[in-house]
Amino acid sequence: MLSGLKVLDFSALLPGPYATLMMADMGAEVLRVESPTRPDLVRALPPQDASGQSAAHSYLNRGKRAITLDLKQPESIEIITKLIKEYDIVVEQFRPGVMKKLGLDYASLAAINPALIYCSITGYGQTGPLKHRAGHDINYLARSGVADYSRRLGEAPIPQGIQIADIAGGSHHAVMGILAAVVQRLRSKKGQYLDISMTDCAFSMNAMFAAGYLGGEVEPTAESNMLNGGSFYDYYETSDGRFMSVGSLEPQFLKQICEALDLTSLLSLAASPKPNESKQFKDALKETFLRHDFNHWCNVFSDLDCCVEPVLSFAEAVTQPHAQERGWVTQICANEKSIPQLSNPILKTGEGKEAGRELGAHTHSVLRDLGFTDDDIQAYKTRKII
Asked: What residues contact residue 175 under an 8 Å CB cut-off, 6+ apart?
């Protein structure tokens, strides 16, 4: 779907690489630029896959070519200025001002290629008092107000199992912005600059609760609303320490679960505006689920359509029949071996793509395509430019 787009990727770790992975999966040509002396830390992240590389690196960088360039060397900047005539999208993840010091900022590169779309992904954005601060996913969720009410009342916020601000905030918003800019460029023939702040994007994901506060002055707090534990919409422990998820908000679903649990006499309490009555219903759910084990409740709700589902381990999730039917996992070529990876959720595939390669795997071929001779390339290697 994105065949014809060429992306020059200066990012590392997760947000940028995940964004360019999505574009590579959809057909864009992605060329990743890494330092020859300070490679992406994900390359060393355990565990390794069957190819002998970091499984995370193999996944995040599949379908991409990789070159090494020491961006502090003027020869490297010359190489980038040649590439930018062909590559019409740049993704970078340095702190604000770094690319400008290198002479690789939007203004400098757009002077060479006016159609350039340039996307910067940072924790706090290119402006504002926090712009130079270091950060990670947990910090962006904390600063955006999400972490404070995503917890149990009286308890500490919980570190999330996935990187919400990095991926849903940084990666996804970057891809949306880039593709919107591509559409705009079809009309104007001009590119533009995109400033993607993971904290800005995480803040925007407050969505309904932000609307309630800004429009109705009701601040979201721990277990204070329908969707964060303030109602029966929650997780319930079974007798063997597993959990079931209950999201039966609509009347028809609520009626079914009450019938299944023999709680029809308490049906009127479920949606009661009185806290003591809604708590009474929730307590009844807790007590009922604790009477039987996980498998019992899986069997009870397997044929019911009332928004009650088991909390699966990852191993269970990936092997469930629905995952098999929907193609959640695909086989990828990695160093002449076939390895399983997450498939692209839009295309339901990843087949035909090669896993992330070793550091600088395509440096020589890229430089040859730009007209550099083997002697030039050897001289660059000797001087540690590549």
From this structure: 19, 22, 23
Q: What is the model's pLDDT at position 112?
A: 97
Residue 217 CB neighbours (<10 A): 7
Cβ proximity of 54 and 336 under 8 Å: no
Give CA separation, 286 vs 93, 221, 231, 267, 269, in Å.
45, 22, 12, 15, 15
Closest CA to 123 of 181, 173, 169: 169
Task: State phi, psi for 310 to the nearest 5 degrees.
Answer: -75, 145
From residue 334, alpha-carbon distances to 52, 53, 68, 318, 330 in Å are: 9, 9, 20, 21, 13
Task: Please report which helix (H) or strand (E) contains residue 218, including its range.
Answer: none
Q: Per the structure block, which two tokens stand in for 371?
A: 């007209």
The count of C-alpha atoms lying within 13 angstroms of the C-alpha of 111, restricted to the half-sphere facing its C-beta, is: 6
Dig out the tokens for 145 from the structure: 């107000």
Which pLDDT value is given to residue 59?
Answer: 96
Question: What distance in Å separates the CA atoms of residue 102 and residue 100, rounded to the nearest whole number?
Answer: 5
Catalytic residues: 136, 166
The C-alpha atoms of residue 137 and residue 60 are separated, in whole angstroms, by 17
Determine how many CB atoms are found less than 10 A away from the CB of residue 31: 18
Kindly state the average pLDDT of the residues 173-202. Answer: 98
Does pLDDT of 182 surpass 70? yes
Our CA angle for 168, 170, 172, nearest 5°, is 50
The DSSP symbol for 349 reads B
Largest CA distance in the chain: 84
pLDDT tens-digit profile of 61-88?
A: 999 999 999 999 999 999 999 999 999 9
Dist CA 219 CA 208 (whole Å):
11
Q: Give the orientation angle of helix 172-188 with respect to helix 15-25, to 10 degrees.
A: 60
